[in-house]
DNA sequence: ACTTAATCGTTGACTTTATCAAGAGTTTAC
DNA sequence: GTAAACTCTTGATAAAGTCAACGATTAAGT
């Protein structure tokens, strides 16, 4: 009997002391995997995934992102933005508008329905965040948010 | 309030004030993307990627992980572990040993060469971590590490 | 003004990664 | 002792990442 069937926490605890478990890149990868799986589950009933949610969120930000800007901010290839916007557009949630200053670019804007869905989706992702950080105090959450932002957007 | 699109000011800065940029799940996903790309580049000369490095690291931990445990700790499907171990094994870096207590399981152990390569790889990932957290003080780094661990391994 | 180069969205080909089901061998449970 | 559960493995399929090239448009150079 090497491992008791049904108890999955034993395995994790066994490797908490490993050098890998202390590496921030590993912890980040693990948190991303846990977080996106949870977010996808919460967004599923709305017909969204983390990717399409991110695009919808920026489309609803009032900042009029172009597809190129979406790719850069989300760290995706521009060709990956196309089917994401296609799907949201086909559902009437966002629209492609010609940029008057540069007709090569297409500005992504959200429709009223897109905004309504985004508000629901935002509640879902906030719930996921609460679950993820259930063990953290309010000030710890804000500390974590600030430190993550300084790494995600180095000056 | 739509900001003027197409302006050549830094694209990232334009969206720092977006609601998405304040979401921890988004920041985590972005950090993971930046970090794994950087780590893969640093590990490339050693013939490793973040995935194979993670397996090698645990194999060299002295904790004798089984493939099932590797999958659980790394949040991968067990079938994904197979080709990872295959590749490391074919290079003589790790070995599959029958678990004497349970002959279904295979314990992954590292060879001398595996350990030597791991030590070099560990230097590379530490360098990546230094680059990622260049803007953080030493105490901020440890705070971040602890907060990430509490999310990655909820009790 | 006119040619050349660069940019944006898009398509398509291709590789890598993720997800799932099923099978052979082994261990556990009843 | 038989049935159920577990581990590794294979294979099929879907999703995601990477890269080159094209038409339309803009910018740069002369």
Automatic annotation (TrEMBL), chains A, B:
InterPro entries reported in the protein's UniProt record: HTH_MarR-typ, MarR/SlyA-like, WH-like_DNA-bd_sf, WH_DNA-bd_sf
GO BP field: response to stress
Protein name in the entry: Transcriptional regulator, MarR family
Any single Pfam family the record assigns to this protein: MarR
Top-rank lineage group of the source organism: Bacteria
Domain HTH marR-type: 17-153
PROSITE patterns in the cross-refs: HTH_MARR_2 (PS50995)
MF terms (GO), sorted A to Z: DNA-binding transcription factor activity
Organism whose genome encodes this protein: Paeniglutamicibacter gangotriensis Lz1y
């Amino acid at each position: 009997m090497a491992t008791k069937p049904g108890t999955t926490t034993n395995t994790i605890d066994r490797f908490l002391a490993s050098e890998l478990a202390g590496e921030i890149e590993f912890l980040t990868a693990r948190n991303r995997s846990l977080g996106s799986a949870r977010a996808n589950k919460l967004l599923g009933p709305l017909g969204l995934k983390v990717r399409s949610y991110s695009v919808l969120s920026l489309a609803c930000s009032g900042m009029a992102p172009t597809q190129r800007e979406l790719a850069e901010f989300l760290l995706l290839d521009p060709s990956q933005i196309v089917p994401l916007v296609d799907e949201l557009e086909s559902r009437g949630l966002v629209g492609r508008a010609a940029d008057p200053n540069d007709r090569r670019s297409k500005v992504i804007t959200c429709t009223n329905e897109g905004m309504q869905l985004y508000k629901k989706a935002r509640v879902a992702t906030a719930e996921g965040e609460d679950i993820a950080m259930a063990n953290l105090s309010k000030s710890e959450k804000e500390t974590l948010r600030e430190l993550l932002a300084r790494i995600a957007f180095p000056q």
